[in-house]
Amino acid sequence: MDMSEKITVDVRDVAKIYGNQTEALRGVSLVIEKGEMVSIIGQSGSGKTTLLNIIGGLDKPSKGAVYINGIDIAKLSRNELAKFRRENIGFVFQQFHLILYLTALENVMLAQYFHSMADEEEAKHALEAVGLGHRVGHLPSQLSSGEQQRVCIARALINEPKLLLADEPTGNLDQANSKNIMELFKKLHQQQNITIILVTHDPSIAETAKRTIKVTDGTISQGSV
Amino acid sequence: MLLRVTRDRLARRKIRALMAVVSVLVGAMITASLVNISIDVSEKMTKELRAYGANIVVEPKTQTQAIEIGGVNYAPLAERRYLDSDQLSSIKTIFWRNNIVGVAPFLYGVVEINGQSAVLAGTWFERRLDIPASSVTLPNGTVLKESAGTFTAGVRSIAPWWKIQGEWLNDSGTDTGSGAAGEVIVGEKLAQVLKVKVGDEVRVGFEGVDEAFKVKGVVFTSGFEDQQIFVTLGEAQRILKVSNAVDKVLVSALVKPDDELARKPLEKMTADEQVIWYCSPYIGSITYQIEEVLNNTTARAIRQISENEGKILNQTQMMFFLIAAAALLASAIGVASTMMATVFERRLEIALMKAIGAEDGQISRQFFLEALLIGAVGGGVGYALGNFLAQLIGRSVFGTEIGINFLTLPVTLAISMAVALLGCLIPVRRASSIEPAIVLKGG
Description:
heterodimer; A: alpha/beta; Rossmann fold; six-stranded mixed beta sheet; four-stranded antiparallel beta sheet; 8 helices; 10 strands; B: alpha+beta; 2 domains; two-stranded antiparallel sheet; 14 helices; 18 strands
């Protein structure tokens, strides 16, 4: 197998400078192979979320290149990036970001709709896979935090992404729910061999991944790149 | 899915959706009412304007210049030519017969009233005419047939502002128009000069004959008629010894303002244009048609009145257009401000949608669909309320019902939806510029 086919994420000397000259990332390089589960750990403001956003195509680097499955996403237009995200990447957010007036099922179907076509049965199966088969018709306000995060995971996985990006996925959960969510990530990783990048400030959560990368002041300070 | 999301979102933001609907509704209501009125207005306003008097005068064709003072022909009786009063009903047989709303003949003579010279005017007051069955031949040879009918003619329909103290002379239902024998109406100024009032008797002398007449009323016209004495047309013909004679006929016709075609000389028109001109209620085509049915007559427009009517109609329609445009602009601004607030409220949701792969077009479509729904609901309700408003305006301004034109429904809906779409253009642009990374991070 060609080496490039094994690599999912290839970040090359990426820097991100915001308008007020704040340097969020300073020459970060990183390679993540297909099927890897990697955690990025760092203090608040260290640049780990910025790195995740750039890998996910939500933000553009000020310098450097980001190859996802061989495509330099820094060169894509806004709409090309949107298409790239829906076809390749699933996002899990700390605040869940569910649409409050849509049911759990509709929140999952929305991702299908933007990808291709909403399929209710498929969306139900995705919710069953995260243990929410009995809560499909509930609004987010009727679900616990742990359940909301499960809906978020089902939404992230519905379009079978190649890369799952989770930004502090347990940040708003209690210990028991955090453990359950991480178990779910492990299970999905094993079953679907999906590449997962977890951003967290919690070392115990970071330990779930086989590889941990530490970001400090916009640079990688620890862990293999 | 898009419909479901839009529906759920609108249901959740009822107040905001309602505000946007009301914005569109107000514009649609004003537009629908003004469009309805505008369609109906030409006829209604023209009828109203007709209350300001006749707009056509019909006179005998003559070689000599008439010596006319105060509307009265002072040429010697021997040189005067007359219209035949028996033929006047044929005015109501022309192609635009239904647009002839008033006809009043006049016969004048200078007589002695209580020893003083004064103008005697014979006319119809409120006389029923039998209109014969007739046919009209169009310039292209097409013949149109019309059945017989009746028509009430007289000064009371062409000069409704004349005020009477006492009673009008009654010539209704008479075959000869010679009812109210021995009765007169005296113009207000003449009554002052003669010192007569309702119920008094005056003596009318002409060529050696002297008769007593009873004053049935004193008329206030604010014109030269205030110095005249009125009898029925039949009585005037008897006194002045000119049977069936009429000096002139005033005609009140509903006309449309002159346009380019109306101003073109008839001989320079193509055959098709001639038919269109003939079949349009221009003042010129109506006078032409009157001359066709009344031999040896000249029918001419009282230009100032006709042109002013056209100007008033055009100005009114322009005013309606500007009011509707201003109302629609206000609606678009209302929708824009509501949508702008919605974009701000929904920025997190929009950022999320973009993060999970929505393109700008997919975000825009949600707003456009929302705008179309708001436009359709606002337009539909606005149309219904607009018809109601049109009725109110119709009753209070024109004193009549405004006809409901169902063709204005699709027009109102289309305009409302276009206004709502226009109103959401800037908000859509703002939504497209949302950066998901910044918003999702809480920026």
